[in-house]
């Protein structure tokens, strides 16, 4: 197994940018936000792979199968998945049911990096730091200063934060 970290970018609000033509926030089809965070943080030993590039409300069963297939083929032991926050728990459960031999941290942001970079940067860097010392294979969620097994953290839609169960 490769003990370095792989980041898989699936899109989500984390990656949204303003489209001047439509006037809407759209999921960018690139890894620019992640690259910028890693560059500013002086981290160069992480591989990034863009896979789905969707809002998480649009991620479906086939997308999750594609994600699982890619992870199973990967020789990386430690993986961060940048994912939209609306269905992050659903994807985490799917991964947990299909993957047992990886350390996976799912993270995202409720505000786009392009609008306010603080939350996305904080969440991604927390995930990186956690994975560098993580010893136990599992699926974790990292949001708002919390890093827990995926079954122990949920999105509180009323308060617009993630919290422990």
Count of individual beta strands: 10
Oligomer: single chain
| Low-confidence spans | none
- Count of domain modules: 1
Radius of gyration: 15 Å
- Strand order in the sheet with the most strands: 4-1-5-6-7-8
Average residue pLDDT:
96
| CATH fold descriptor | Rossmann fold
How would a crystallographer describe the biggest sheet?
6 strands, mixed
How do the helices and strands follow one another from N- to C-terminus? EEEHEHEHEHEEEE
What would CATH call the homologous superfamily?
L-asparaginase, N-terminal domain
Shape verdict: globular
Strand content: 25-35%
Top-tier CATH class: Alpha Beta
**Any guess at the CATH architecture?**
3-Layer(aba) Sandwich
Structural class: alpha/beta
Task: Bin the helical content.
Answer: 25-40%
- The number of helical segments is 4
Distance between the termini: 32 Å
């Amino acid at each position: 197994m490769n003990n370095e970290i792989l980041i898989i970018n699936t899109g989500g609000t984390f990656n949204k940018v303003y489209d001047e033509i439509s006037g809407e926030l759209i999921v960018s089809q690139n890894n620019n936000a992640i690259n910028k965070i890693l560059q500013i943080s002086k981290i160069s030993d992480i591989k990034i792979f863009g896979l789905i590039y969707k809002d998480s409300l649009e991620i479906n069963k086939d997308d999750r199968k594609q994600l699982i297939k890619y992870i199973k083929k990967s020789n990386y032991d430690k993986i961060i998945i940048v994912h939209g926050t609306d269905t992050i728990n659903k994807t985490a459960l799917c991964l947990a049911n299909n993957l047992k031999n990886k350390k996976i941290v799912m993270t995202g942001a409720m505000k786009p990096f392009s609008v306010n970079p603080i939350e996305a940067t904080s969440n991604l860097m927390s995930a990186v730091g956690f994975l560098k010392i993580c010893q136990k294979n599992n699926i974790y969620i990292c949001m708002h200063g919390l890093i827990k097994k995926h079954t122990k953290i949920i999105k509180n839609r009323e308060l617009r934060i993630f919290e422990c169960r």
